[in-house]
Every structure is written in C-alpha cells, then in structure tokens.
Amino acid sequence: MNRKQELHIDIDWKQVARLMLLSRNIDEKEENELTPEKKILYQFSSKGHELAQILLGMNLTNPKDMVSAYYRSRPLLLTLGLTAEDAIASNMAKSGGYSEGRDIGTVCNLPNEKGPTVLPMAGDVGSQYTPGAGYAQAIQLLSQAYQKEEYNGAISVILGGDGSVATNGFWSALTMATTLNLPVLFFVEDNGYGISVKSNFQTPGGNIANNLYSFKNLKILKGSGTEPEETSGLIKQATEYVRAHNGPALLRLTVPRLNGHSFQDNQAYKDDALLQQEINNDPLKKLKEFVLKGMISEKEWNNLESEIKNEVDKAAEEAWNRSEPESKNLTEALYNDGMEVQKIGGLYSSGYEFPESSMEPKSEKQRINVVESIRRTLEHELEINEKILVFGEDVGAKGGVHAVTSGLQTKFGNQRVFDTSLSEEGIIGRAVGLAYAGFMPVAEIQFRKYADPATEQLKNTGTIRWRTANKFAAPMVVRMPGGFAKCGDPWHSESNEAFFAKMIGWQVVVPANAEDAAGLLRSAMRSNNSTIFFEHRNLLDSKYSRKPYPGDDFVVPIGQAKKLKDGSEITIITWGAMCERCEEAAEELDTSVEIIDLRSIIPWDKKMIFESVKKTNRCLIVHEDNRTAGFGAEISATISDELFKYLDAPVQRLAFPDIPVPYNVDLMNSVLPDAGKIAEKIEELVEF
Questions:
Q1: Exactly one of 49, 261, 402, 492 is catalytic; which is it?
Q2: CA angle 42, 326, 461 (to 5 degrees)
C-alpha cells in the first residue's frame, strides 16, 4: 500500500457524502426558502467550504481536541454531532440551539460530551485565534506539567478565512504558537475574498502560507480544499504532525465561496468568468465524481440525496415549530449568581472547592503597602490552588513593572508565573483559552491605557456566558494599574474605569488600601465571574493605603461598599485614590460628612448608598475619571431617579475635566480633585 492509499484508508467516504449533502441542503433550504420567507434573518453560507471541514472533523479523534472556529464553520459542527434541527433552529432564533435566540445562528458553539468541543465563536473577525492558542497552551500544561494522560496527543484547531490572517489576533496567536511550540493547527480556508476585498489586500501575494516559511517551529502545508484525495491527505498530514510533534502547523486550503459573504451579498464584484470557475470548483461535484468510482453507486447517491432532502425539510419544520425563547430569562446568565454552573470553563465547572473564607480580617501588626498585599495574596492562592496562573508582560523574572509579582516565578516556576509577548490582545485571548480548560488566569495589563488593544477580547469574554445560555464561561482576573502617580501623562495615568463598567459581564473593583486589595483580589480569584482588578498607581506605596495584612482567608464581597466616616449632613461617594482626599476634606470642616468608599464599580452597593442619602439628603460624588460619562454620572442619575423626594440639593459631581492627564505635575494637580476643591463643594451643597 502506498502513502497516498494510506492517507484515505480510514475515511468513511459514504459518511463524508452524507454530511456534505446535509450541509449543502441546509444552506440551500435557508437561502431558497427560509431567508426569503423571513424565517431566518441572518444567513451565512458554507457552500464551497464543506469538504475540508468535514474531513477535518473526521481527523479530530481525541475527545480532548478543541476547536476555535468562525461563522462559516457549520459543516464541522455537523460532523462533530450537531443535529440539523438544532442548526436550523439556531438560525431561526428559536429555543434551544446554541444560544436560546441570543446570538446569530451561525455564531456557534458545541459543548460536546461525545468528542471534541467547539468553543464559542464570535461575530468579529480574527478573535477566535488567541483563545485557541490559549487552549493549546492549556493542553501543553495539562499533558506535561500536570501529567493528565487524557490530554496526551490532544490538539487545538483554529479555523479562519483568508481575511482573518490580517488581524492582530492571527499574528498574536501565531507568535504564541511558535515561541511556545504549542499543539495548534491553523486551518485557513482561503476563498479569495474578505467580503468583497481580494486576498492580495489581506496579505502580500494573497497566500499567507508563502509568507510564513521563515517562522521557526511552524510546519507549513497548502493545497486544494475541494479535491477529495488531496484535501484528505493534507488534513491528515497536518493533524498527525501536530499530534506527533506537539507543535504548530498551518494548513492553507483554497476553496470557492459559492455564495456571497452573507445572503444579502450578490457578489457583483465578481465577473461571470470567476463565478463560473467557482461553480466548476464545487467540492460537492468533485466528491460525487470521486465516490462514484466504486464506493457508492449512482442509485445509492440519488437515494442519499432524496433521504437528506427529506431530513432537512423535516428538521426545518420541527425547528420552526419550536417555541420562541422566553424574554423573562433574557437578563439571566450575565453573571453566575446562584444559577447552575456552566458546563465548560473555570474552576467551578470541574467541581473545585475553595477553602473557607472570612469577612473578618485577622490583621497582623505590621502595616504593609498595596504592592506587598497583592503579592502575598497571589502567593497564597498560588500555593493552595494549582490551577491559578499568573502572566503578562514582565511579570516573571522582573517581577512586574511595579514589583507586584516579585519572587513568584522563582517560587512557582515559569509554567505558572510567566511572561508573555507584548500583545494585550494575546494576553486576554490566551486567558480565555486557559479559562475554558479549567484554569483561573490572573492576567496583567501593565497600565490601563494599554488595555485598549484588548478591547475586543475583553468585551467578548464578558458576554460568553450570556450568549451561550450558560453553556460556557471564562472566569478570570485582569490586574490593571492606572491613575495618576508621581506625575501624570496621557498613557500611564488614565483611569477610565467607566469604560469597563460598560463591558457587560465583568465585575470591576477598585481597592483603596492594602486590606481591601487582599480581600477583593481573593474574592476575584475565587469568583465564577470575570473581574477587572484596578490597582491605583498612587496607592501602591502610599502612606494612606498601608494597612496590616488581613490574613489568608480574608475576602471582601464584590459589590459591598465600606463606610469610611459616619455623618448626617452630606454623603460623599468615592473610590480609589479619591478616598484619601475626601477624608482630608472632611477633616477641614465642621460639617458632619458621611464618606462611602464604593470599592466595587460593578456591581455597586446601591443599598448602602441609598440608606446614606436618605439620612443626609445631600450627595457629592468624587472621582478621578473624566466627568462626562464617568461612573459618577450613573450613580447620580440613579439617585435622582429613585430618591428625588429625599434630596435637599441637587446631586453634584466633582471629577477630572474632559482632557487627558497632563505630564507636568503642577498642571496635573491643577485639575485633579483635591481636599480644597472637595471641601468647597461640600460647603456649597450644605448651604444650598
């Protein structure tokens, strides 16, 4: 038997034909009937891509294989067990399916108990890459460092079109895969167009494989995704290579896109000759010619066509007859608050049980700064929980630019505390993949402003639970220093915590001292939700923020504010570095001031604030973020809406003006809220 015969001997070509016809019939049913009838509102065709995806699915033989795919990947899901009815019902936004009508029907996921899982897809281009690379790192860790035999030989496969190879996510994932030698297969389906833009505008020469031969540790394969024998051979070689070498490969397959980007796209940008060429390159036609050469008779093929058409017609009818999703459940699954634990992702889905915690501090005598408090909290949680991983730029041997992780890599090794490439997209995407595999990632973004390139991953992370109807979640902690310090500047000194308050599904906490830093960080690392942990630069080593370490069991419940000072004439609501300045202002006055440190931005302690405002009848909100659309505006609006009858004066805000933070110290101080400005505002409101 020659090598060519070996590559195809284990392929069930009758099953390939069945799946190919099933996928094609679903697409044509949607395109010709269901979408024109408005039963489906958003349709993306997979016609032309099916053969390669089906053959890929048949080569995913390890139950721990994981797939990070995109919106044209339904043939793969059908191969891995998705039913025709669920596929169509999801596109109809009916009950059941991928998301209970919450997400576009072709943005799929498959928590597969019988085989490889397909991670939740996203509607943006290229965001599938870094979570897939993160999961590949999880495979490597679980197989090698944690000695989990079931992960031996498992691989992560990332699917994408030719347009996606131009994105930050692709290049970040490629860097991760090649520098760490991860078991990941980049599966590029090149149909020549990103919507209407040709491939040569996405990558020089229009062929990403030709541009990557200089990459170390990367096996490059390329060829047709429409020729049954060639495609099968290439996919088998690629998957076998990744399994055998525990290292990355890229397979670029050329396929036709037989319909537009979506149903509404008429492909007017393609000329008639190209359209005919693509029809001639239809993998279904080539598959039929191939299997009729002794594998299936003409009569069997015709019977299979008829059988599949009837199956799809029936599935479409049953899908349409499903109930509509209930709107009363629409606000559920934003957070894991007393609901069933997600099927995949995080510590809780694997049954991990945390030790007892306490809201009562067991304070030591010596006061420590916030840096040491965070470091000690990380150290203890790393000791008791082997699934915690700490990573980011410079967190390893250097110990972080603020020395927060100093010594942790020495103690726990470079597989649990490690440096990353300088890509915030990659840092957060990697964290998502690791979280799916059951780790608790504690990722660092060096400064708040530098989180901007990771916005796509951060936003997608927060909505995972909701858009998969609680099938998946990716709990993590993202540590993020920011705010003014010895000086300002537009890059390192930004706070802008309100930006994250708008990121649905995230918890956002802002400790003002060493005790709260330990308690909030421990709560975040033991949470089944994702948390932004904001570390104010001016508080990291300030005298004001120094407190005794509260012990290794101490937690601060997320969403619980703290009363810094009792008073009866006015309520001040603040957080972060403004806590010190508000207390200084209160000391200057004879006024009875009540000061509340919010501590958590999302969720925020509405109960404590309302009780205080009802007592004092006046409210001032002080924060460092810009005034316009700062989080103080949300608190102010809520108080005005719900407590108007209790107010003896309008709710006021004192905040940073709508400018970047200036570098010059005097300029910075001239616009920051300080004790004098706060005191003036207090007197103004009390005298109103």
A1: 492
A2: 60
